[in-house]
Amino acid sequence: MSAALKKLDGVESVDVSFEHASAEISLRADNRVTLERIRAAVRESGFSTGDAEIAARGRIVEQRGKPMFDLLNGSRMELTAKPDPAPSGVVEITGTSKAEEKAPDRLTITAMKTISTARSCPKPNCGYARSKPCLARRDILTQRR
Length: 145
Description:
- The chain is mainly beta.
- It has helices at 2-6, 35-44, and strands at residues 11-17, 22-27, 47-63, 66-70, 76-79, 91-97, 106-114, 135-144.
- The two termini are 13 Å apart.
């Protein structure tokens, strides 16, 4: 599974723990990898997926009347709810995307802070000062098929 995930364009590193049934996936700031594609790679490797813990940088926007998290790289994730009040600038979020078989991933934000785009990446040892997004995702593996 680790090899399959590393083949995805934009994946920086993968740390799989079979003991904890999890995989920590760090993505490059300029990635275009979607959570759907990561889940597909995990399933193609013979594992099922569970909830995903997500740490990301982007903006809260609306698309067709739905709240979305814009990752500033062409990717957006639907939110379960729009934060109140909705921030106008770039934010750093953590949240969870529930694994639902037939439904698209929807992100529930658990923590959020407004940031300046000139700050350094919050990811340890990243060292990337940028105006582009940085995204680290953790996908929970439930069991081997």
